[in-house]
Amino acid sequence: MRAALPVLTVLAAILLLWYLAVAPMNIRGALDLAERSGRAVTPETPLARQDVSVWRLMAQNPGQIAAAYELDRPRLPTPQQVGGELWKTTGEMALRGRAMSKRSLIYHAAVTLRSTLWGFVLGTALGILGAVAIVYSRVVDMSLMPWAIISQTIPIVALAPMIIVLSSQLGIEGRGVPKAIIAAYLCYFPVLVGMVKGLRAPAPSQLDLLQTYSASGLQVFLKLRLPSSVPYLFTSLKIGIAASLVGTIVGELPTGAISGLGARILIGDQFGTPLAIWAALLAAALMAGALVTLLDLLQRITLKRMGMQA
Amino acid sequence: MNETIIDAQGLDLTFQTNDGPVHALKDVSLTIGKGDFVSFIGPSGCGKTTFLRCIAGLETPTGGSLSVNGMTPDEARRKRAYGYVFQAAGLYPWRTIAKNVKLPLEIMGFSREEQERRADRVLELVDLKGFGAKYPWQLSGGMQQRASIARALAFDAGILLMDEPFGALDEIVRDHLNEQLLALWARTEKTIGFVTHSIPEAVYLSTRIVVMSPRPGRITDVIESPLPKERPLDIRDTPEFLDVAHRVREGLRAGHAYDG
């Protein structure tokens, strides 16, 4: 409860700001609608209203502010509207047994989740292997590490379409594989950096101690370096899974994708249905939150079982 | 004199650093006999730790000769000639105390029953019986250091090399551990090489005190202690004790004379 209170306070503040922002964001739309239905608004035409600030519009038409909260296609929907849309496309459809319908966000979230997890597994594996190579080989350290850093400076939105085109050239069917590759591309880096740090965490005296036992390299790795890196690994995994989700959604954005939360966002944009965009966005955020929370839980359990103070 | 365990003759060690060569040890000659308790004392940079690391084969001398049990330090290490205790207890936080003590035994391939038996025995030896299932963070600093001594004793090495093992502990705990260490030494008849900053600690513990001085690291005095093997803590108030302490202090001062 002590931990929940600050979080809830921030959440309340965000919701309040959100509600306050809805009126100025939607006032033009509300006035257009009122004008079309024959009600009196000032100024009278959309053209005339163009040069007037939203604040003045609100001051001159206080009666229309309430309408700004109830538009069908708002610039900025209210949290309530987004929540309603989210429920309509998830829970309500699930109750009707249509959870896996193509109109259901559950279906799209599942598509995104699958690529995210594949990318996460692939990226984590690459990150750990890369870190081991870097820690054990000076040559790899000097040659690979700079490239790993450069790889993260390339904007993923620029790279994603190329990966998709290349993988279709290679005859890979569907979007699953290229999406997982994009996700892995974002995910491997935090894992790599964290694991390099973790594997190098043991103090020199601890390595000396093992040397006094004439321990083999493999023993040093398994008994000292690997366990030392576990706390670092989990921290990296939490960043990595969030990055994977971002990568997957970016991979779903280029035209052609029809399923996944990213595709929903794009389609919502193209068809002018902001509620769909916001619902997909909220679904993605909730999924990211759930995944990170899950890993956090796993971290606590693991560290506790290892006897380390979490 | 008893059988020679460690024999250093004209030992030299120069480190190449970015600021040029550092003469860490210069012409160090010393023999340590079986069952001796030898302390190395001197200001930082005098090479006392480096000398201990040479004995352990963690550093390679650039000149002179060094033998441990009649072998090179590397061979001696592979024959498990010594246990090493560092200033930091360095227990693995993810292992219980018993599992920490078993670490060298696992690496050296002892059977499970043997590991169990030895861990029990050495934990009793350092007065940590009943703490085997605890994790390091549940123990005080002094207890952690005792556990690390138990770990060094677990595989029955004849030599115990200790690098400022009690340096990070407070005076009261240190006194207590010094007493325990002497009792342990009497019971196990190990040969002990002990690096310290503290004059009373060196005098209280040792049969021989090696005074060293820096730049280049060298031995300036070797003092045979006239104190009896039985040493209650209040021996530190006797004239003999104060005499030895005085000589050590003189030795340290002489080594420092040129840079004052």
From TrEMBL, chain A:
- UniProt similarity note: Belongs to the binding-protein-dependent transport system permease family.
Domain of life of the organism encoding this protein: Bacteria
Q: Which PANTHER family match?
A: ABC TRANSPORTER PERMEASE PROTEIN HI_0355-RELATED, ALKANE SULFONATE ABC TRANSPORTER-RELATED, MEMBRANE SUBUNIT
Which Gene3D superfamilies does this chain map to?
A: MetI-like
Query: Where does the sequence pass through the membrane?
Result: 6-27, 105-135, 147-168, 180-199, 275-298
User: Which Pfam families does the entry link to?
Assistant: BPD_transp_1
What does the record say about its membrane topology?
Multi-pass membrane protein
Q: Where in the cell is it found?
A: Cell membrane
Q: Write down the InterPro entries for this protein, in alphabetical order.
A: MetI-like (IPR000515), MetI-like_sf (IPR035906)
Q: Which UniProt keywords apply?
A: Cell membrane, Membrane, Transmembrane, Transmembrane helix, Transport
What protein name applies here? NitT/TauT family transport system permease protein
Q: Which residues form the ABC transmembrane type-1 domain?
A: 109-299
> Major location, coarse class?
membrane
What is the organism of origin for this protein? Cribrihabitans marinus
Q: Which GO terms describe its biological process?
A: transmembrane transport
Entry GO CC: plasma membrane
UniProtKB/TrEMBL annotation, chain B:
Which Pfam families does the protein's record reference? ABC_tran
Q: Which GO terms describe its molecular function?
A: ATP binding; ATP hydrolysis activity
Q: Which domain of life is it from?
A: Bacteria
> Which residue numbers delimit the ABC transporter domain?
8-235
Read off the Gene3D superfamilies from this record. P-loop containing nucleotide triphosphate hydrolases
Which keywords has UniProt assigned to this entry?
Answer: ATP-binding, Nucleotide-binding, Transport
Does the record bear ATP-binding in its keywords?
yes
Which PROSITE patterns does the record match to this protein? ABC_TRANSPORTER_1, ABC_TRANSPORTER_2
Q: Which SMART domains match?
A: AAA (SM00382)
Q: Which family does it belong to?
A: Belongs to the ABC transporter superfamily.
Q: What is this protein called?
A: NitT/TauT family transport system ATP-binding protein
Originating organism? Cribrihabitans marinus
